[in-house]
Amino acid sequence: MKRDNGFGVGGRPLGRDLACTVWARTVLIQAVLPRKPHALTQRVPDRARADHFRHVLQPYWGADLRRSVIQLLTSALPFFALWYVMLWSLEVGYWLTLLLALPTAAFLMRLFMIQHDCGHGSFFRSRAARDAVGSCIGVLTLVPYQYWRKTHAYHHAHAGNLDFRGFGDIDTLTVREYLALSRRSRLAYRLYRHPLVLFLIGPAFHFLIKHRFPWDIPREWREAWRSVWRTNLALVAITVAMALTIGLQRFLLVQLPLTLVTCSIGVWLFYVQHQFEETYWHRRETWDFFDAALEGSSHLVLPRPLQWLTANIGLHHVHHLSSRIPNYRLQEVIDAHPELHRVTRITLKDGLRLATLSLWDEDAVRLIRFRDVRGREHGEARGPIAAAA
Q1: Around Cβ 196, how many Cβ atoms within 10 Å?
Q2: 266 with 112: CB under 8 angstroms?
Q3: How many angstroms separate the CA atoms of 269 and 274, rounded?
Q4: Helices in 58-197 by DSSP H: which ranges?
Q5: How confident is the model at residue 39 (pLDDT cuts 50, 70, 90)?
Q6: Cβ atoms 381, 361 nearer than 8 A
Q7: pLDDT tens-digit profile of 244-253?
Q8: What is the pTM for the complete model shown?
């Protein structure tokens, strides 16, 4: 597995992008998080371990054209059919339209997983086919394909690295960083980490507004910016076409709830894949790619129908070990290699409980909640055991 120098192409400073939030970061983290990458020594990869996982995972690399085409058709056709049924349901009652938004959103999420695999190069062997399909789906998901592809690569290269946060992930402060903030900045971070913002307001802001003009990426990323403008142009064209055919109001009555439901589900899925009590966060000098994949990525255990609809993205630790494996082969990897069963398993019920985790405690080596540092906010020392309670 190829790894970069620890900061990826054009490594970005920690804390540059507060993803999925309405509030700007002007009052947050400025005095606490470094504005430039630290000059630290990257941990040397364990060559034997890298060779082992390469040997285990390489047989599953690469796309199967037949399976890819079938998955694309069984995702796109039901989505468009359900979208039309949502439109028709407006004649019956808006309550039915809203009910239909959930299954339609599930197929739109499945389409996003295909876009996701195209971005990783695992869905088609042809780069042109991947880019064409990924870009078209990006219009439906409101996610500019090349922009997302590049920022998501940063997430895979640095997941769990405390010295490289805030780009392609959900911002997470350590306890020390949080306590060093001013009262106003703590309030801003609390608002950001509130479940209402993380899973409702934030996703809407991120997908509807932030993706239209991603101000946090460099101008030098020309391909990413072209993808943004092409996606925006396509969205304008579709909106005008819908306004001239079915009417703007009817189009929005269908599309807005569908978009909001899909965005919230997507952010929740991403959240539970990395935000759990005993996840993985290390400083750059001790960070390890394989530990980050196995300890910092969960196995989201879903009923089979939901696992199918989410294209196996819940098998996230395997995906982080090798993003070259297409989603429809992830279960095969799990079934064939029991060593990959020994990871954190998350259920739907766990997902509700994890929503209030907010801070990384470097002493207790776990994610904790705001209430666990209440005493320390007022200068009262509490030990790691108390913090983890």
Answers
A1: 10
A2: yes
A3: 9
A4: 65-89, 94-120, 127-141, 145-158, 175-180, 183-193, 195-196
A5: very low
A6: no
A7: 999 999 999 9
A8: 0.85
